[in-house]
Each structure stands twice: as C-alpha cells, then as structure tokens.
Write a structure and sequence with these properties.
The chain is of the alpha+beta class. It has 2 domains: 70 residues, Nucleic acid-binding proteins (OB fold (Dihydrolipoamide Acetyltransferase, E2P)), CATH 2.40.50.140; 86 residues, no CATH class. Helix 2 runs antiparallel to helix 3 and helix 3 packs across helix 6.
Length: 205
Amino acid sequence: MKGFILKLQRARDEDMIVTILSPTSVKKYYRFYGARHSILQMGYLIDFEEEQDKANFLPRVRSLSHIGFPWLYDREKLMLWHQFIAIFERHFRDIESVESFYFYTLLEAAKRWEKQSPKRLIVEVAINILKYEGRLQPPSHCVICNNQIDKSIAPIQGFLPAHPECAKSPAISKKDLMNLFESGSTILLDDATIEQLYLLALKGF
C-alpha cells in the first residue's frame, strides 16, 4: 500500500503515531520506535503494510520503504512541500474515508514539483480541489456585502469572492481569476498575483 505521511505525533518513549493519506483513506497508525526511522518524515511518500493488532487501539504500520523525489534535497522546495502537506492534514482532520482523487492529485503535484513553480502548483491544486468538491464559487457577487463584482476582486479563504474594500485586500482582475477558475492553470497570472493567491491557499481549501 502507498501513502503520503500527513502528520507525525510522538507517543510514548520513541513510538510514533503516523497519519497517512492513501488512495482510499486517511488513517492513523502506530509505529514502535518510529522516532528512530528516518523514513518517517512529514510529506514522504511511502510503501507500507498495515497490521491489525487487537492489543492496540491503532493498526500498526510495518515494512516501510521510501519512494523519493529529486527535489527532496532542495531546501526551499521541501519547505514549500511541508506547507502544502499541512493544508491536506487540516483538510482531512476527523475524516477517514476519501476518494482516490486526493491521493493522485498529491502524487501528480509531487511529480511536477521539480520542474514547475511550487507556489503555482499549490494554487492550482487548491482550485482543482475546490472545483472537485463543488465549492468553487463564481466571482460574480461579494460574499461579504452581496453586491455585484464588476472588475476587481479580492478572494478570501476558500477563494470566495469579495470586493477589495470589503475584504481589505489587494485587488485582482476578475478576468484573470475567472480564467484561473475555468482552466485550473496559473500560466496567465503574474508572480505578484501568485504570491497573493498562494498565501490565501495556505489558509486552507
């Protein structure tokens, strides 16, 4: 079984509780002496086996192997990956069963992380997940004052549309945001806009 490590928690002594996103679930596992294993790192893709143990309240994770990516040795890209993974961990908190869409979306992002801008990928993934979940709201009316949005928009958490004066945030072209929502691509957006949307994405899907 393959999965991404979303979170690590120290249990007693050197044991660890490991939260893993697989194609079908987000589950917590117990790993004896997990703190000693370098494979157990936030964001790592691992191959593992699940072992049920009636004596413990959590299944155990065993036979671990790490599936690496070349960018893991790039400090900046790894830091951005950790930020990205943290969004997923919060998004799936208290959820166990998931569709395979999320695992394979994360896997595709990991494959593209080396050659594409991680910040752009984070924005694109956020948009595509919101679209998949049916929560991507067209930027036609401000969610704060409920009045129509004409040219400029300042999206808030969840990429919900708002007037710049209502959100008290820098303006983005409505046309540019519509293109992003429709295409799922950031290719037409400048770096300043990407930085704004990236910081927004870090707040959660």
